[in-house]
Amino acid sequence: MAPADHIHSAEDARRLARRRLPWMVFDYIDGAAGRETGLTRNRAALDALTLRPRILRDVSQRSLATTLFGATADRPFGIAPMGMCNLSCPGADLMLARLARDFKVPHGVSTVASTPLETIIEVAEGHAWFQIYFSGDGSGTFKLVERARDAGYETLVVTVDVPEVGRRPRELRRGFKMPFRIGPSQFVDFALHPRWSISTLLHGRPEMANFQMPGYSFDRTESRAKADWDTLARMRDMWPGKLVVKGVLDAEDALRLKNSGADAIQVSSHGARQLESAPTPVEALLAIREAVGPDYPLFFDSGLRSGEDALKLLVHGADFCFFGRILQFAMAAGGEVGLRQMWSVLSDEMSIAMAQTGMTGLQTA
């Protein structure tokens, strides 16, 4: 059997990825801040949400389609922005772009993607949103915003929850660096994972592709603490399309963002990778929905592991959800076939949960 044939859940994808990836790469993708108690609380909060089973309803015809910024999306979930995806599998960025194209869902393109932002939106046939970090004095940040606009991106995602990069001990112990560097311990790690190492060697070391030009530089550890509300106002003024603010966990901040011209808010704890003691995104979503009202667009990411997880969030106030880590694990486990298998699993999980709760479409959520 091919590796993808063994993916029946997100846990399967993670287990297979753990075998195949070097320890350094796996811990970079999988790790969370501090002692990882935030990750545990996030999972517990998701598990505590319930759905209401309904019986004797004709649910033989069901649709997972929804509307996102006025356009039809074939699924109510998309691809969260993730840095250096090609570490999980050579060509991962474009695998995700093709998936986004085929299902008409947004592919969140990270500032630190392994593939140039222009290439990704072309392959995704426009189904891509560009995610930006403010960094340093902001000069490079605004150049990238202009570049994304010129490339045809219509939605900008401004990530605001990383004024300083959180400490992730697993990652630090492995000596993970961006740009990617190989020292003695990494050499041993890679030697013990020859399949990944040979494949990566044949395709070239993953780089932060959006900075491979004169005048562009990015230091992952550089402070992002200078960003403030004036910074956001400047982005709003220069960006002609939709502006999504990602990394929001406070209802007061959410209401101010709504009043400041943000087109949508993405409730997120950055996958518990930044502030270990942050409130769970689940409880934040409930409070933010109450603050901004029923009609303002709210998106959700952080810790989703199944289609049923996503349905729970949609029922409890989110308009759209994003998956992250598990898609990287699926690609690490089985390449593009593994990714498609994971996507099919997520779709089946949601469709079955809809049937069991009497839903034929998401408009009834």
Secondary-structure arrangement, i.e. CATH architecture: Alpha-Beta Barrel
At the fourth CATH level, what is the homologous superfamily?
Answer: Aldolase class I
How many strands in all? 10
Largest sheet geometry: 8 strands, parallel
**Terminal Cα span:** 38 Å
Total DSSP helices:
14
- Please report the first level of CATH classification, the CATH class: Alpha Beta
Global structural class: alpha/beta
CATH topology: TIM Barrel
Rg on CA atoms, Å? 20 Å
How is the largest sheet built, in terms of strand order? Answer: 3-10-9-8-7-6-5-4
In the predicted model, the low-confidence regions spanning at least 5 consecutive residues are none
Beta-strand content bin? 5-15%
Helix coverage percent? 40-55%
Oligomeric organization of the protein chains: single chain
Mean pLDDT: 93
Choose one word for the global shape.
Answer: globular
Nutshell version of this structure?
This protein is an alpha/beta fold. The protein has helices spanning 10-20, 23-30, 37-48, 92-103, 117-123, 139-151, 169-174, 184-191, 194-203, 229-238, 251-259, 281-292, 307-315, 325-356, and strands at 66-68, 71-73, 77-79, 107-109, 128-133, 155-159, 242-248, 264-267, 298-300, 320-323.
Record the SSE blueprint:
Elements: H1 10-20, H2 23-30, H3 37-48, E1 66-68, E2 71-73, E3 77-79, H4 92-103, E4 107-109, H5 117-123, E5 128-133, H6 139-151, E6 155-159, H7 169-174, H8 184-191, H9 194-203, H10 229-238, E7 242-248, H11 251-259, E8 264-267, H12 281-292, E9 298-300, H13 307-315, E10 320-323, H14 325-356
Parallel strand pairs: 3-10, 4-5, 5-6, 6-7, 7-8, 8-9, 9-10
Antiparallel strand pairs: 1-2
Helix pairs in contact: 1-14, 4-5, 4-14, 11-12, 13-14
